[in-house]
Amino acid sequence: MGSLPAAANWTDRASTAGADPGNLSAALAAGAAPGAAEAEWLHLLVQAGNLTASSSALGLPAASPAPSQPRANLTNQFVQPSWRIALWSLAYGVVVAVAVFGNLIVIWIILAHKRMRTVTNYFLVNLAFSDASMAAFNTLVNFIYALHSEWYFGANYCRFQNFFPITAVFASIYSMTAIAVDRYMAIIDPLKPRLSATATKIVIGSIWILAFLLAFPQCLYSKIKVMPGRTLCYVQWPEGPKQHFTYHIIVIVLVYCFPLLVMGVTYTIVGITLWGGEIPGDTCDKYHEQLKAKRKVVKMMIIVVVTFAICWLPYHIYFILTAIYQQLNRWKYIQQVYLASFWLAMSSTMYNPIIYCCLNKRFRAGFKRAFRWCPFIEVSSYDELELKTTRFHPTRQSSLYTVTRMESVTVVFEPSDPDNSKASRKKRATPRDPSFSGCSRRNSKSASTTSSFISSPYTSVDEYS
């Protein structure tokens, strides 16, 4: 993902290619998209002075003829039939529409309902914003560039086009990583204070700053080149293709391998903790309620992470293989492979709202409210209550922290003592265990050791529902 626009790959190879017309056939196949191949071919033709061949093959304005040079008999293998362009346009259009509107609704659900404003959900807002932005500002533009092999959007947007995708992907995956770490801390070490609203904003701001720094070279080296009948947008690295490949590997490690490794470790530990076994004996309903809620949230986030990993894997593999084995770019269907891998990567931006709606009852209630104008969507009173703030929210903690230690006083009569038959003696009863309000007293030792795992004074059921 050194540069999401497909035409970025050919530029480094073009800088090292010779102007010999004998290399033109290889140059034609060097691009990953229609604009890539045609542009490199045209660039070499200009250097060689053989503009007649470029005019005849591409339909561009012809320069002065060069009868002493043989005409190149080259065809553009990346021209697609209209029906295929229509299918790809439909596929990319669906991704953009679902991703933009779905993620905007997710942002509205969280920000417009006070009950949804939790630490995890603030990171989900950041994730939804980055996904919606990439779908709106990158996906469609890159698709148009790949199909038409012509950059229509100017120099400034060329820089943005090469810069923003890496920024957005970095913000997306590190928002997921922050959620994984937050879930880990909340479940494995629940007695520590949770992130405050201010700390959460600082983390989100830091994610974007690091994302900008990582993607800055893409902006710095972005260029447009106006050629006869063509305008190109590409990234020209000062040291050529090796520097481009090195940067691409660094990006893959930082925005794919490392965060997925962190999330894999944290969710594995959390999963073993949550699904590893039950507390022996009977336990209270509060325990089961919070355990079930935590499992649902972790399950939802694991699905989000796995979906992201699957969607982006073919895209990274494509660029690594075509950089190492450049002969793959001569394959007849390489453009279709690129469009398919890029579509799959961009489709990762549209799955999260669907996952939230299917696996979380409050997000599902929020989507029902957003689409209540549809005749087949019915918002029940239960759905309305799901998004309302609980009236006694502070008391929704475990009895371990809300029940005070009390000693009951019992009056005991001893009729066997004739002198004191009407007297009474007060005896202190055994103090109640504060950690088992409403729970079974069996296996109290086992339950008490795990009570802190289930609840903490800093969380409530709302955090996990």
Automatic annotation (TrEMBL):
Any Gene Ontology biological process: positive regulation of flagellated sperm motility
Disulphide-bonded residues: C158-C233
Gene Ontology molecular function, alphabetical: tachykinin receptor activity
Topology relative to the membrane: Multi-pass membrane protein
GO cellular component term of the entry, any: sperm midpiece
Gene3D superfamilies, per the entry: Rhodopsin 7-helix transmembrane proteins (1.20.1070.10)
Ranges annotated as spanning the membrane: 85-111, 123-148, 160-181, 202-224, 244-276, 297-325, 337-359
Domain G-protein coupled receptors family 1 profile: 102-356
Pfam families hit by this protein: 7tm_1
Record bears the keyword Transferase: no
UniProt lineage: Eukaryota, Metazoa, Chordata, Craniata, Vertebrata
Chief subcellular location: membrane
Protein name: Neuromedin-K receptor
Organism: Panthera leo (Lion)
Positions of the UniProt region annotated as Disordered: 414-465
Family from the record: Belongs to the G-protein coupled receptor 1 family.
CDD domains: 7tmA_NKR_NK3R
Keywords, sorted A to Z: Cell membrane, Disulfide bond, G-protein coupled receptor, Glycoprotein, Lipoprotein, Membrane, Palmitate, Receptor, Transducer, Transmembrane, Transmembrane helix
Biased composition (Low complexity): 445-465
